[in-house]
Design a protein that fits this description.
CATH class of the largest domain: Alpha Beta
Bound molecules: FE2/S2 (inorganic) cluster, fe (ii) ion
Strand order of the largest sheet: 14-22-21-20-19-16-15
Radius of gyration: 22 Å
Structural class: mainly beta
Number of helices: 4
Distance between the termini: 27 Å
Number of domains: 2
Number of strands: 22
Shape: globular
CATH topology of the largest domain: Naphthalene 1,2-dioxygenase Alpha Subunit, Chain A, domain 1
CATH architecture of the largest domain: Alpha-Beta Complex
């Protein structure tokens, strides 16, 4: 029985790091419960298509093997298109077959594969997923820190976790767990605000001067806030002003497995060593405290809430908008 009653929600989901897909390279990936290919054209544009050729079902991202090493070969990009390794059909970024090299008959209308709407920003390649096949209903922001000469980044870290986006993101409203899972001295609260559409939700935790932050990686010098701006399930921008910014981009591999990427930037003014310490505190300590809880719990639809629990019901109401529009 599934531990979670949720389908893969609507939104933008990262399917590769930009640096993993060079020009004229095809990368096979499995996300959103499907096989996909990410390919970058000769002109540099990233495209994402369903992996299986409309002709006879070959995988567009896996070429013929060589007798020597018995390894599969790479897929092939020709200009702005990807070529199927089986019989040479050529597909462009819209998923249309534009050439069948050996036939004199016209290209059938059914000679196409599903193309995904793509955005490339924050060092990642995203696709739009919608449960009812609707076009993008919103955009996600590009962090200006990544383009600034005054900031170091983007620095990508990643991990795969047996859970779903709903469970991971509920953490932001679960104020009590910070004490028991992450060892904070007291139960800290946060303020929750919404934009006018109620899609973008910001949770801000007050950080007083003198407070140890990120497992003692640094001490907060002047009072500030740690904001977590959730644009959807699976895309959150986290910031402590002048100290750290990062994008948390999480992609369902299937309904019970998530690939999480955190893309960091920190200002040059704090120094490389301090930046690395902060990043390590989040990446190698904080998240690994949560993972065993997430991987071994199950979702409870009607929890036994008591006074003092965080605003979990409020989170669930917000999250429900991403399962349809
Ligand atoms: S299976 Fe792709 S061209 Fe034949
Ligand atoms: Fe947590």
């Amino acid at each position: 029985m599934s531990r979670f009653p949720f389908p893969i929600p609507n939104g933008w989901f990262a399917v590769a790091e930009s640096s993993q897909v060079s020009r004229e390279q095809v990368v096979p990936v499995h996300y959103l419960d499907r096989d996909l290919v990410v390919f970058r054209t000769s002109s540099g544009k990233a495209n994402v298509l369903d992996a299986y050729c409309a002709h006879m079902g070959a995988h567009l991202g896996i070429g013929p093997g060589s007798p020597g090493d018995r390894e599969p070969g790479p897929g092939t990009v020709i200009g702005e298109c990807v070529r199927c390794p089986f019989h040479g059909w050529l597909y462009n970024g819209t998923g249309a077959c534009v050439e069948i090299p050996y036939t004199t008959s016209r290209i059938p209308g059914k000679a196409r594969v599903q193309a995904w709407e793509v955005r490339e920003q924050n060092g990642l390649i995203f696709v739009w997923h919608h449960l009812e096949g609707q076009p993008p209903a919103w955009e996600i922001p590009a962090l200006e820190e990544f383009d600034s000469p005054d900031w170091d980044g983007p620095i990508v870290t990643e991990r795969t976790i047996s859970t779903c986006l709903q469970e991971m993101q509920e953490n932001d409203h679960d104020f009590v767990h910070f004490k028991y899972v992450h060892g904070t001295d007291d139960i800290r609260t946060a303020t929750i605000t919404y934009d006018e559409t109620r899609r973008i939700k910001t949770t801000t935790e007050y950080l007083e001067a003198g407070r140890d932050f990120a497992k003692g990686a640094t001490v907060i010098s002047t009072e500030t806030g740690f904001s977590r701006e959730a644009h959807q399930l699976g895309f959150v921008v986290l910031r402590v002003p002048n100290l750290l910014s990062f994008v948390a981009a999480s992609t369902p591999i299937d309904q019970e497995t998530v690939h999480q990427r955190w893309v960091f930037a920190f200002p040059n003014s704090i120094g490389k060593e301090a930046g690395k310490k902060l990043l390590d505190a989040f990446t190698y300590q904080g998240i690994y405290e949560d993972i065993p809880i997430w991987e071994n719990k199950r979702y409870v639809d009607s929890p036994v809430f008591v006074k003092g629990d965080g605003p979990i019901a409020e989170f669930r109401k917000w999250a429900s908008q991403f399962y349809s529009l």
